[in-house]
Amino acid sequence: MRLELNFLIWKVVCVMSNKKEFLNLGKQPIANKFLKKDELGDEFFYDLKVVFDEDTKLVSLRNFVKPELMFNEDYVYHTSLSVPMVEHFKNTSEMLMKEFNPLTVMEIGSNDGAFLKNWPNDYSIGVEPCGNFTNVTEDMGYKTYSEFWTTELSEKIKNDGYVDFDLIYAANCICHIQNLDECFAAVKNILSKDGVFVFEDPSLLRMLERGSYDQIYDEHAHIFSVTALDNILMNNGLKIFRVDNLLVHGGSNRIYVSHLPSHTFLRNRPVELTVRENLNKEKDFGIDNFNTYEIFAERIDKSKKDLVELLTKLKDDGKRVVSIGATSKSTTVFNYCGIDESLVECITDTTPDKQGLLAPGSHIPVVDRESVNLNDYDYSFLGAWNFKDVIANKEREFIESGGKFITHVPEVMVFS
Ligand code: JHZ
Q1: pTM to 2 decimals?
Q2: pLDDT digit string, tens, across residues 126-143
Protein backbone atom coordinates (compact mmCIF):
# COMPACT_ATOMS: atom_id res chain seq x y z
CA MET A 1 0.00 0.00 0.00
CA ARG A 2 2.82 2.42 1.03
CA LEU A 3 4.77 1.49 -2.12
CA GLU A 4 1.74 2.12 -4.34
CA LEU A 5 1.18 5.51 -2.71
CA ASN A 6 4.86 6.43 -3.20
CA PHE A 7 4.63 5.39 -6.84
CA LEU A 8 1.49 7.51 -7.30
CA ILE A 9 3.13 10.56 -5.72
CA TRP A 10 6.20 10.03 -7.91
CA LYS A 11 4.02 9.83 -11.05
CA VAL A 12 2.22 13.07 -10.10
CA VAL A 13 5.58 14.80 -9.49
CA CYS A 14 6.80 13.57 -12.91
CA VAL A 15 3.73 14.92 -14.69
CA MET A 16 3.93 18.28 -12.92
CA SER A 17 7.66 18.81 -13.48
CA ASN A 18 9.10 21.06 -16.12
CA LYS A 19 10.15 18.54 -18.80
CA LYS A 20 10.72 19.64 -22.41
CA GLU A 21 10.98 17.16 -25.25
CA PHE A 22 13.86 17.60 -27.73
CA LEU A 23 14.31 14.28 -29.52
CA ASN A 24 12.05 11.63 -31.02
CA LEU A 25 13.84 8.40 -32.01
CA GLY A 26 10.62 6.76 -33.17
CA LYS A 27 9.13 3.38 -32.38
CA GLN A 28 11.72 1.18 -30.69
CA PRO A 29 11.73 -2.40 -29.40
CA ILE A 30 13.34 -3.69 -26.19
CA ALA A 31 17.02 -3.06 -27.02
CA ASN A 32 18.32 -6.39 -25.75
CA LYS A 33 15.35 -8.61 -26.65
CA PHE A 34 16.81 -10.70 -29.46
CA LEU A 35 14.13 -12.80 -31.12
CA LYS A 36 13.53 -16.31 -32.34
CA LYS A 37 11.70 -16.48 -35.69
CA ASP A 38 8.47 -17.60 -34.01
CA GLU A 39 8.47 -14.54 -31.71
CA LEU A 40 8.32 -12.03 -34.55
CA GLY A 41 4.57 -11.32 -34.35
CA ASP A 42 4.58 -10.44 -30.63
CA GLU A 43 7.31 -7.83 -30.51
CA PHE A 44 6.79 -4.95 -28.08
CA PHE A 45 7.43 -1.38 -29.30
CA TYR A 46 7.30 1.98 -27.51
CA ASP A 47 7.92 5.63 -28.46
CA LEU A 48 11.53 6.59 -27.70
CA LYS A 49 11.34 10.29 -26.90
CA VAL A 50 13.81 12.27 -24.82
CA VAL A 51 13.15 15.16 -22.44
CA PHE A 52 15.20 17.78 -20.59
CA ASP A 53 14.05 18.74 -17.11
CA GLU A 54 14.47 22.51 -16.68
CA ASP A 55 14.40 22.14 -12.88
CA THR A 56 16.98 19.42 -12.23
CA LYS A 57 18.71 19.57 -15.70
CA LEU A 58 18.23 15.80 -15.99
CA VAL A 59 17.90 14.19 -19.43
CA SER A 60 15.49 11.24 -19.40
CA LEU A 61 13.17 9.19 -21.56
CA ARG A 62 9.66 10.59 -21.89
CA ASN A 63 8.15 7.08 -21.58
CA PHE A 64 9.78 4.58 -19.30
CA VAL A 65 9.49 0.91 -20.20
CA LYS A 66 8.33 -1.50 -17.49
CA PRO A 67 11.60 -2.76 -15.88
CA GLU A 68 10.44 -6.41 -15.92
CA LEU A 69 10.26 -6.28 -19.73
CA MET A 70 13.98 -5.41 -19.91
CA PHE A 71 15.60 -6.98 -16.87
CA ASN A 72 14.60 -10.61 -16.45
CA GLU A 73 16.08 -14.11 -16.63
CA ASP A 74 16.60 -13.76 -20.42
CA TYR A 75 18.94 -10.75 -20.14
CA VAL A 76 21.74 -11.22 -22.67
CA TYR A 77 24.42 -8.65 -21.80
CA HIS A 78 27.16 -10.60 -20.00
CA THR A 79 29.84 -8.29 -18.65
CA SER A 80 32.34 -11.13 -18.27
CA LEU A 81 32.29 -11.80 -22.03
CA SER A 82 33.91 -8.42 -22.60
CA VAL A 83 37.67 -8.72 -21.99
CA PRO A 84 38.22 -4.93 -21.75
CA MET A 85 35.38 -4.61 -19.19
CA VAL A 86 36.71 -7.50 -17.07
CA GLU A 87 40.06 -5.70 -16.97
CA HIS A 88 38.28 -2.42 -16.17
CA PHE A 89 36.48 -3.92 -13.15
CA LYS A 90 39.68 -5.55 -11.89
CA ASN A 91 41.53 -2.22 -12.03
CA THR A 92 38.57 -0.37 -10.50
CA SER A 93 38.38 -2.85 -7.61
CA GLU A 94 42.12 -2.55 -6.91
CA MET A 95 41.86 1.24 -6.90
CA LEU A 96 38.81 1.28 -4.58
CA MET A 97 40.41 -1.23 -2.22
CA LYS A 98 43.59 0.82 -1.97
CA GLU A 99 41.84 4.14 -1.60
CA PHE A 100 38.90 3.34 0.72
CA ASN A 101 39.76 -0.09 2.17
CA PRO A 102 36.07 -1.00 2.70
CA LEU A 103 35.15 -3.82 5.05
CA THR A 104 31.69 -4.37 3.56
CA VAL A 105 30.79 -4.06 -0.12
CA MET A 106 27.53 -4.16 -2.05
CA GLU A 107 27.15 -4.00 -5.81
CA ILE A 108 23.85 -2.87 -7.31
CA GLY A 109 23.40 -4.54 -10.70
CA SER A 110 26.02 -7.23 -10.17
CA ASN A 111 25.38 -8.92 -13.56
CA ASP A 112 27.61 -12.02 -13.84
CA GLY A 113 30.07 -10.99 -11.13
CA ALA A 114 32.80 -9.24 -13.16
CA PHE A 115 33.23 -6.67 -10.35
CA LEU A 116 32.26 -8.78 -7.32
CA LYS A 117 34.76 -11.53 -8.09
CA ASN A 118 37.56 -9.16 -7.08
CA TRP A 119 36.22 -8.91 -3.50
CA PRO A 120 36.20 -11.40 -0.58
CA ASN A 121 32.81 -13.15 -0.60
CA ASP A 122 32.26 -13.08 3.17
CA TYR A 123 31.79 -9.33 3.16
CA SER A 124 30.43 -8.58 -0.30
CA ILE A 125 26.92 -9.00 -1.66
CA GLY A 126 25.14 -8.36 -4.96
CA VAL A 127 21.75 -7.08 -6.03
CA GLU A 128 20.62 -8.25 -9.47
CA PRO A 129 17.06 -8.53 -10.80
CA CYS A 130 18.06 -10.72 -13.78
CA GLY A 131 17.60 -14.26 -12.44
CA ASN A 132 20.12 -15.86 -14.83
CA PHE A 133 22.93 -13.81 -13.22
CA THR A 134 21.81 -14.22 -9.62
CA ASN A 135 22.54 -17.93 -9.90
CA VAL A 136 26.01 -17.23 -11.31
CA THR A 137 27.12 -14.95 -8.45
CA GLU A 138 25.45 -17.17 -5.82
CA ASP A 139 27.50 -20.08 -7.22
CA MET A 140 30.60 -17.88 -6.88
CA GLY A 141 29.77 -17.59 -3.16
CA TYR A 142 28.24 -14.10 -3.07
CA LYS A 143 24.87 -13.60 -1.42
CA THR A 144 22.78 -12.04 -4.23
CA TYR A 145 19.35 -10.48 -3.90
CA SER A 146 17.35 -11.17 -7.04
CA GLU A 147 15.33 -7.97 -6.87
CA PHE A 148 15.15 -4.41 -8.15
CA TRP A 149 16.90 -1.81 -6.01
CA THR A 150 14.38 -0.04 -3.71
CA THR A 151 14.21 1.33 -0.15
CA GLU A 152 12.14 -1.73 0.69
CA LEU A 153 15.01 -3.97 -0.42
CA SER A 154 17.56 -1.91 1.54
CA GLU A 155 15.40 -2.46 4.66
CA LYS A 156 15.17 -6.17 3.92
CA ILE A 157 18.97 -6.42 3.63
CA LYS A 158 19.32 -4.68 7.00
CA ASN A 159 16.73 -6.99 8.54
CA ASP A 160 18.75 -9.95 7.26
CA GLY A 161 21.49 -8.80 9.62
CA TYR A 162 23.87 -6.95 7.32
CA VAL A 163 25.54 -3.87 8.78
CA ASP A 164 25.68 -0.68 6.71
CA PHE A 165 28.00 -0.85 3.71
CA ASP A 166 31.33 0.97 3.45
CA LEU A 167 31.28 0.75 -0.34
CA ILE A 168 28.22 0.66 -2.54
CA TYR A 169 29.20 0.29 -6.18
CA ALA A 170 27.19 0.26 -9.41
CA ALA A 171 28.34 0.28 -13.04
CA ASN A 172 25.95 0.99 -15.89
CA CYS A 173 23.03 0.44 -13.58
CA ILE A 174 21.97 3.63 -11.78
CA CYS A 175 21.02 5.25 -15.11
CA HIS A 176 18.69 2.26 -15.60
CA ILE A 177 16.71 3.13 -12.46
CA GLN A 178 13.67 5.22 -13.31
CA ASN A 179 12.88 6.75 -9.91
CA LEU A 180 16.18 8.30 -8.83
CA ASP A 181 14.87 9.79 -5.58
CA GLU A 182 13.81 6.32 -4.48
CA CYS A 183 17.16 4.88 -5.63
CA PHE A 184 19.27 7.42 -3.74
CA ALA A 185 17.10 7.24 -0.60
CA ALA A 186 17.70 3.48 -0.61
CA VAL A 187 21.47 4.03 -0.93
CA LYS A 188 21.46 6.58 1.89
CA ASN A 189 19.54 4.16 4.08
CA ILE A 190 22.28 1.53 3.93
CA LEU A 191 25.53 3.48 3.40
CA SER A 192 27.75 3.53 6.48
CA LYS A 193 28.53 6.90 8.07
CA ASP A 194 31.92 7.19 6.38
CA GLY A 195 30.91 5.04 3.43
CA VAL A 196 31.28 5.86 -0.25
CA PHE A 197 28.82 5.26 -3.04
CA VAL A 198 30.62 4.99 -6.37
CA PHE A 199 28.79 4.62 -9.65
CA GLU A 200 29.64 4.95 -13.32
CA ASP A 201 27.39 5.51 -16.31
CA PRO A 202 27.68 6.97 -19.82
CA SER A 203 28.37 10.72 -19.80
CA LEU A 204 25.80 13.10 -21.25
CA LEU A 205 28.53 15.58 -22.17
CA ARG A 206 30.43 12.96 -24.19
CA MET A 207 27.18 11.90 -25.88
CA LEU A 208 26.41 15.49 -26.89
CA GLU A 209 29.98 16.14 -28.04
CA ARG A 210 30.13 12.96 -30.11
CA GLY A 211 26.60 12.85 -31.44
CA SER A 212 26.33 9.31 -30.07
CA TYR A 213 22.55 9.33 -29.78
CA ASP A 214 22.58 5.54 -29.67
CA GLN A 215 23.36 5.74 -25.95
CA ILE A 216 19.62 6.36 -25.74
CA TYR A 217 17.47 3.23 -25.49
CA ASP A 218 14.91 1.71 -23.13
CA GLU A 219 17.39 0.62 -20.43
CA HIS A 220 18.94 4.07 -20.20
CA ALA A 221 16.09 5.83 -18.41
CA HIS A 222 18.47 8.78 -17.95
CA ILE A 223 21.73 9.97 -19.46
CA PHE A 224 23.59 11.66 -16.63
CA SER A 225 25.39 14.96 -16.46
CA VAL A 226 27.38 15.76 -13.32
CA THR A 227 25.20 18.88 -13.12
CA ALA A 228 21.92 16.97 -12.84
CA LEU A 229 23.38 14.36 -10.48
CA ASP A 230 24.75 17.07 -8.23
CA ASN A 231 21.25 18.58 -7.96
CA ILE A 232 19.41 15.31 -7.40
CA LEU A 233 21.91 13.79 -4.97
CA MET A 234 21.96 16.99 -2.95
CA ASN A 235 18.14 16.88 -2.69
CA ASN A 236 18.56 13.40 -1.24
CA GLY A 237 21.12 14.26 1.44
CA LEU A 238 24.12 13.02 -0.55
CA LYS A 239 27.02 14.88 -2.12
CA ILE A 240 29.48 14.28 -4.93
CA PHE A 241 33.08 14.62 -3.76
CA ARG A 242 34.98 13.36 -6.82
CA VAL A 243 34.39 12.68 -10.53
CA ASP A 244 36.58 10.56 -12.83
CA ASN A 245 36.16 10.81 -16.59
CA LEU A 246 36.46 7.34 -18.10
CA LEU A 247 36.91 6.08 -21.64
CA VAL A 248 34.67 3.00 -21.26
CA HIS A 249 31.34 2.75 -23.10
CA GLY A 250 32.22 5.67 -25.34
CA GLY A 251 32.89 8.02 -22.40
CA SER A 252 31.52 7.56 -18.90
CA ASN A 253 31.73 9.38 -15.58
CA ARG A 254 32.56 7.69 -12.31
CA ILE A 255 30.83 9.58 -9.53
CA TYR A 256 32.01 9.35 -5.89
CA VAL A 257 29.37 10.17 -3.32
CA SER A 258 29.22 10.47 0.47
CA HIS A 259 26.60 11.54 2.98
CA LEU A 260 26.00 15.26 3.15
CA PRO A 261 27.74 16.26 6.37
CA SER A 262 25.55 16.94 9.36
CA HIS A 263 26.35 17.08 13.07
CA THR A 264 25.80 13.31 13.35
CA PHE A 265 28.50 12.48 10.84
CA LEU A 266 32.08 12.22 11.86
CA ARG A 267 33.69 12.90 8.56
CA ASN A 268 33.17 15.59 6.00
CA ARG A 269 34.95 14.46 2.85
CA PRO A 270 36.31 17.52 1.06
CA VAL A 271 34.83 18.15 -2.36
CA GLU A 272 37.69 17.68 -4.78
CA LEU A 273 38.62 19.89 -7.71
CA THR A 274 37.36 17.36 -10.27
CA VAL A 275 33.76 18.14 -9.26
CA ARG A 276 34.07 21.86 -9.99
CA GLU A 277 36.07 21.15 -13.18
CA ASN A 278 33.33 18.86 -14.52
CA LEU A 279 30.54 21.26 -13.56
CA ASN A 280 32.39 24.10 -15.30
CA LYS A 281 33.07 22.02 -18.42
CA GLU A 282 29.38 21.13 -18.65
CA LYS A 283 28.28 24.72 -18.05
CA ASP A 284 30.63 25.95 -20.80
CA PHE A 285 29.10 23.41 -23.18
CA GLY A 286 25.59 24.60 -22.31
CA ILE A 287 24.36 21.44 -20.62
CA ASP A 288 21.88 23.47 -18.56
CA ASN A 289 20.45 25.17 -21.64
CA PHE A 290 17.58 23.68 -23.69
CA ASN A 291 18.96 25.17 -26.89
CA THR A 292 21.96 22.81 -26.68
CA TYR A 293 19.54 19.89 -26.97
CA GLU A 294 17.70 21.37 -29.93
CA ILE A 295 21.04 21.69 -31.76
CA PHE A 296 21.85 18.08 -30.84
CA ALA A 297 18.50 16.93 -32.27
CA GLU A 298 19.27 18.64 -35.61
CA ARG A 299 22.65 16.88 -35.72
CA ILE A 300 20.97 13.51 -35.10
CA ASP A 301 18.48 14.11 -37.89
CA LYS A 302 21.39 14.74 -40.25
CA SER A 303 23.23 11.64 -38.99
CA LYS A 304 20.18 9.53 -39.88
CA LYS A 305 19.93 10.99 -43.39
CA ASP A 306 23.67 10.54 -44.01
CA LEU A 307 23.70 6.91 -42.84
CA VAL A 308 20.64 5.88 -44.85
CA GLU A 309 22.01 7.65 -47.93
CA LEU A 310 25.40 5.94 -47.61
CA LEU A 311 23.97 2.44 -47.07
CA THR A 312 21.45 2.88 -49.90
CA LYS A 313 24.19 3.97 -52.28
CA LEU A 314 26.36 0.99 -51.30
CA LYS A 315 23.45 -1.35 -51.93
CA ASP A 316 22.76 0.24 -55.32
CA ASP A 317 26.46 -0.22 -56.16
CA GLY A 318 26.17 -3.92 -55.32
CA LYS A 319 28.36 -3.69 -52.19
CA ARG A 320 27.85 -6.02 -49.22
CA VAL A 321 27.63 -4.68 -45.65
CA VAL A 322 27.93 -6.57 -42.35
CA SER A 323 27.73 -5.10 -38.85
CA ILE A 324 30.05 -5.91 -35.92
CA GLY A 325 28.55 -6.01 -32.40
CA ALA A 326 24.82 -6.59 -31.80
CA THR A 327 24.73 -3.81 -29.22
CA SER A 328 21.87 -2.09 -27.44
CA LYS A 329 23.16 0.99 -29.22
CA SER A 330 22.74 -0.54 -32.67
CA THR A 331 19.12 -1.38 -31.82
CA THR A 332 18.52 2.38 -31.55
CA VAL A 333 20.41 3.19 -34.76
CA PHE A 334 18.83 0.50 -36.93
CA ASN A 335 15.28 1.21 -35.75
CA TYR A 336 15.59 5.00 -35.85
CA CYS A 337 17.09 4.90 -39.34
CA GLY A 338 14.83 2.10 -40.63
CA ILE A 339 17.80 -0.12 -41.50
CA ASP A 340 17.02 -3.79 -42.15
CA GLU A 341 18.52 -6.87 -43.80
CA SER A 342 18.28 -5.23 -47.22
CA LEU A 343 20.97 -2.70 -46.19
CA VAL A 344 22.96 -4.64 -43.56
CA GLU A 345 23.01 -8.39 -44.27
CA CYS A 346 23.89 -9.66 -40.81
CA ILE A 347 25.43 -8.72 -37.47
CA THR A 348 28.32 -10.65 -35.96
CA ASP A 349 28.51 -10.91 -32.18
CA THR A 350 30.72 -12.84 -29.79
CA THR A 351 27.89 -13.41 -27.24
CA PRO A 352 26.52 -16.97 -27.64
CA ASP A 353 23.10 -15.91 -26.22
CA LYS A 354 22.60 -13.44 -29.11
CA GLN A 355 23.79 -15.75 -31.92
CA GLY A 356 21.20 -17.46 -34.11
CA LEU A 357 18.57 -14.86 -33.18
CA LEU A 358 17.18 -11.80 -34.92
CA ALA A 359 18.10 -8.28 -33.82
CA PRO A 360 15.29 -6.37 -32.07
CA GLY A 361 13.01 -4.46 -34.45
CA SER A 362 15.29 -4.61 -37.51
CA HIS A 363 15.24 -8.44 -37.52
CA ILE A 364 18.74 -8.56 -39.00
CA PRO A 365 20.20 -12.04 -38.27
CA VAL A 366 22.85 -12.18 -35.53
CA VAL A 367 25.61 -14.67 -36.23
CA ASP A 368 28.76 -15.97 -34.61
CA ARG A 369 31.82 -14.07 -35.84
CA GLU A 370 33.53 -17.41 -36.54
CA SER A 371 30.79 -18.45 -38.97
CA VAL A 372 31.42 -15.44 -41.22
CA ASN A 373 34.25 -14.73 -43.61
CA LEU A 374 34.50 -10.97 -43.31
CA ASN A 375 36.33 -10.83 -46.62
CA ASP A 376 33.04 -11.72 -48.34
CA TYR A 377 31.87 -8.23 -47.35
CA ASP A 378 32.98 -4.82 -48.58
CA TYR A 379 32.01 -2.78 -45.51
CA SER A 380 31.58 -3.39 -41.76
CA PHE A 381 29.34 -1.09 -39.76
CA LEU A 382 30.63 -0.62 -36.21
CA GLY A 383 27.64 -1.39 -34.00
CA ALA A 384 30.15 -1.52 -31.14
CA TRP A 385 31.95 1.73 -32.12
CA ASN A 386 33.06 2.05 -28.48
CA PHE A 387 35.40 -0.90 -29.17
CA LYS A 388 36.64 0.58 -32.44
CA ASP A 389 40.35 0.08 -31.68
CA VAL A 390 39.88 -3.47 -30.37
CA ILE A 391 37.84 -4.44 -33.44
CA ALA A 392 40.15 -2.69 -35.92
CA ASN A 393 43.06 -4.56 -34.39
CA LYS A 394 41.25 -7.92 -34.49
CA GLU A 395 40.06 -7.42 -38.05
CA ARG A 396 43.33 -6.27 -39.62
CA GLU A 397 43.02 -8.92 -42.33
CA PHE A 398 39.67 -7.46 -43.46
CA ILE A 399 41.26 -4.03 -43.89
CA GLU A 400 44.37 -5.44 -45.58
CA SER A 401 42.09 -7.19 -48.07
CA GLY A 402 40.43 -3.90 -49.00
CA GLY A 403 37.51 -3.92 -46.51
CA LYS A 404 36.31 -0.67 -44.95
CA PHE A 405 34.59 0.31 -41.73
CA ILE A 406 31.53 2.53 -41.41
CA THR A 407 30.75 4.46 -38.25
CA HIS A 408 28.20 7.15 -37.37
CA VAL A 409 30.21 8.54 -34.41
CA PRO A 410 31.08 11.41 -34.33
CA GLU A 411 29.57 11.61 -37.81
CA VAL A 412 28.77 9.19 -40.59
CA MET A 413 32.05 8.20 -42.27
CA VAL A 414 33.95 5.42 -43.99
CA PHE A 415 37.49 4.61 -42.88
CA SER A 416 40.10 1.89 -43.09
P1 JHZ B 1 28.61 -2.96 -25.56
C2 JHZ B 1 25.44 -2.52 -22.71
O3 JHZ B 1 25.16 -1.84 -23.92
C4 JHZ B 1 24.15 -2.82 -22.05
P5 JHZ B 1 25.72 -2.32 -25.34
C6 JHZ B 1 23.91 -2.11 -20.79
N7 JHZ B 1 22.53 -1.83 -20.67
C8 JHZ B 1 24.55 -0.81 -20.66
O9 JHZ B 1 24.10 0.01 -19.90
C10 JHZ B 1 25.71 -0.51 -21.51
O11 JHZ B 1 26.31 -1.70 -21.96
C12 JHZ B 1 26.68 0.40 -20.85
C13 JHZ B 1 30.08 -7.62 -28.99
N14 JHZ B 1 31.48 -7.59 -29.47
O15 JHZ B 1 29.54 -3.26 -24.45
C16 JHZ B 1 29.91 -8.03 -27.54
C17 JHZ B 1 31.79 -8.30 -30.62
O18 JHZ B 1 30.92 -8.97 -31.21
O19 JHZ B 1 29.03 -1.92 -26.51
C20 JHZ B 1 28.68 -7.28 -27.13
O21 JHZ B 1 27.50 -8.01 -27.47
N22 JHZ B 1 33.07 -8.25 -31.09
C23 JHZ B 1 24.38 -2.95 -19.65
O24 JHZ B 1 25.04 -3.59 -25.73
C25 JHZ B 1 28.72 -6.01 -27.97
O26 JHZ B 1 29.57 -6.29 -29.07
C27 JHZ B 1 34.04 -7.52 -30.47
O28 JHZ B 1 35.19 -7.51 -30.95
O29 JHZ B 1 25.58 -1.19 -26.27
C30 JHZ B 1 29.31 -4.85 -27.20
O31 JHZ B 1 28.33 -4.32 -26.38
C32 JHZ B 1 33.69 -6.76 -29.31
C33 JHZ B 1 34.75 -5.91 -28.61
C34 JHZ B 1 32.39 -6.82 -28.84
O35 JHZ B 1 27.24 -2.59 -24.89
Answers
A1: 0.94
A2: 999 999 999 999 999 999
